[in-house]
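Subject: Sanity check before I submit

Could someone independently write out the structure tokens for this chain? I want to compare against mine line by line before I put it in a report. The sequence has 124 residues.
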Amino acid sequence: MFSHDNPPGYEQMNSLPEIGEIGGQTFTGIGRIRISTADPQPGMVILFVSFIYNPDDKVFLEELVLKTRDFREIIMDYIGSFTVEDLQKREEENIKHELLRRFNAVLRLGQIETLFFSDFMIIG
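---
Independent answer below. Compare away.
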């Protein structure tokens, strides 16, 4: 079993500016996702993704809510394409970057700047 109880970048995530300082709010609507890996006997990845958005942009928030199912599918398709070993070798920042790229590709009314993982556990 491989687990990131405190994944790389965890300290940065826990030292995020207060919401009032950056004029944003944390979007947690994607929720915790459990994903089977591509192994012959699949492992499991548990992932919770969040990001900061501007709560004053009601139209963009509505798009985020409407795209939540798409975000979950993007995560499941991308993470589920790897074996446990492949995921253990990948840098967490590279995974975040690719998911961010894919999220922003489906958005029309705004863009997400940074993804945060508060849970990222690989169980193999």
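---
OP: Matches mine. For the report I'm noting this point. Helices lie at 10-14, 19-22, 58-66, 68-79, 84-89, 92-106.
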